[in-house]
Every structure is written in C-alpha cells, then in structure tokens.
C-alpha cells in the first residue's frame, strides 16, 4: 500500500483579533508572468485519470463546502460520491480554481491507503468533477455531535486516531501536506469501526511549501505558524512544513478523547487568535492519562520542529493501546521497532532513548507546568 454556540467576548477585542488575523495571512501564492501580471501555474491532468461524463449520473446532494458540492451518484453501475467544484466568475478566479482542481486530482490519484477515500476518476468538462468511492457512514464531526455529551470508548477513540494518523503518514510519505485536517473531512465507514480521510481540497506538495498561502484550513484547527504578528505584504512567502498537520491532529485527538468542541465559547477567529498570539490550547482534562496527554501536547507544541512525526505518533498510540489489555507473553517488544516498552504490570514505561532525546524536555516542561498550577491552587 503506497503508501456549538459561539459567544462574542467584547466588541473591541473581537475587532482587534479580526484585524490582526486578516492582516497576518497571505493570499494564495501565484507566479508572476513576464508582463507583470499574476497567474496560476498551469497544471495538467493525465488523460488516463479522466472518466466519461456520459456515464455519470448526479443524484442527491450529500454535502457542501467552500469549494464545491458533493452528491451521491452513479458511474456506470457503481454507486459513487461526486464532488462538483466551483468554476469561478472571473478569468483569474477560474484559473485559480482549475489549478486547485488539477492539484487535488493529481494527488488523490497518486496515493492509495485503506484510510484514504478511494479515488475513481475526474472530468474537466462540462463540469470540474472528482469521483470517489461513496462511504455510507456520516462524517466524524456529525457522529461526535450525535452522541454528545457521551464520550467515545477509549478503544474506539484510539482506533479512530490510529486510522487518521496512518492516513496522514501515507500523505507525508508521498510529500503531501493536507493543511485542513478536521473531523468534517473524516468519514466513518458503514460499520462505524474505522474512518477515512476524504478531502484533499487544500492539500499541497511539500516541495513547494514556501510558495503556499498561510490562510488555509479552518481556524479552530489551524497551526499557529500559519499566522504572523507581522503584517505580510501580498506576494510575500510564508514558510512552514508538514508539522502543521501534526498540530491539527493534536486538536482532533483531543476531540476524540473529550467529545467537545475545541476552544469552546470562542468564535473561529477568537480561537485562532488565542492559539497564534496567546499560545492558548484546549484544556486537557485531568482524567486523561498522562501518556495520552503527552501525545496531545507534543502535537500542538509551539515549535513545529519539536512535534512528533506521524510514524512516531502511531508508535506511541499503539504502545498506549497495548497497555489497555494484558501484554502478550509470547514475545517481547523490539527496542528498534517500537518507541515504548511495557513493564510487567502492564503500564507504559519511558520512551526509547532515541525518542527521549527529542521529547525529554517536553516532559519536563509539562511536569513544571503541572507543578506550577498545583502550587497556585
């Protein structure tokens, strides 16, 4: 395999936050042509990826986003999901949306994984359409809301988290940054036992991150490095890497374990402002185990270079999941293949020396914060 209600917190503060956020993000990056005009780079779609529009039947609408609508439909004799993207109203807008469409098609066709929605094909005319497998289950967001205030069973929450992490590991292994990881883009399978990542609309090639827009994703889940306290001029570059997805995953993992909306009581802009300029994060409940709290907080630490990779996240989640049931007596964990060891009483021991070297100071930081909070109470 190749790889809630939102409450305003005061007029002046809210307006200030909006001003800072809107002034601190880049516009979608574009290349400058010889005559000085701005144009999107031209991208093409391999003819083998195109489907025959005559065989497509579009049925009932099942979803809608900023860039298009999703319908249940049929391709030949197969039931599918059909995403129809907006064309735009001006020539510049059409060029930008066509480039976005081509990028999404090329990336979806390139990566295959059991936790990624299967790409079937696309067509350019008369509509820009992406055809994928149809999952009969609802989005993870709708499912969590439907069972709220109840929480997911810990085994289910960790299973979903592992599904997401494996899908993201696959994308990163293929040089793709998703940039919009959130429960709305995750779909449950029919038996509600696994989830798949469904939308690549804002994904980008990692090799061109320095040319990408900072204002991507959804504010509540966005990494703080996507903002800057210094106003960016149009055309300036914003550097970031695939660790923006790790930050978003940390927020999603927190949601899976708490079944609460991150940054409750804040608007989307207030949440982004709090995360980017006040270094605020959702509060981790005391009943969450220290091991899971460490994974979450490692994912959303301020310095992106100190966040774990998805490969490391998978190993840490598996190690913790293993502690929830008796360890196997037939074999011992290989220190070269796992980031954690299990003690005889079934508790997770410290991470391996290789991982401790990277995350050791984080444990000290979290411990110091906990001690400080205890003393202040």
Summarize the structure.
This is Serine-threonine/tyrosine-protein kinase, catalytic domain. The chain is an alpha+beta fold and 377 residues long. The protein has nine helices and 13 strands.
Over all CA atoms, what is the radius of gyration?
22 Å
The tally of strands reads 13
Number of helical regions = 9
Briefly, what CATH class of the largest domain? Mainly Alpha
The N- to C-terminal Cα distance equals: 51 Å
CATH architecture label of the largest domain? Orthogonal Bundle
| Helix-residue proportion | 25-40%
The name of the CATH topology of the largest domain is Transferase(Phosphotransferase), domain 1
Trace the largest sheet across and list its strands. 3-4-5-7-6
In terms of structural class, how would the helical and strand content be classed? alpha+beta
CATH superfamily of the largest domain, called what? Answer: Transferase(Phosphotransferase) domain 1
The coarse silhouette is globular
The share of residues in extended strands comes to 5-15%
Low-confidence stretches: 4-41, 207-217, 228-235, 326-356
- Give the topology string: H per helix, E per strand: HEEEEEHEEHHEEEEHHHHEEH
Compute the average pLDDT. 76
State the domain count.
2
Largest sheet, in brief, is: 5 strands, antiparallel
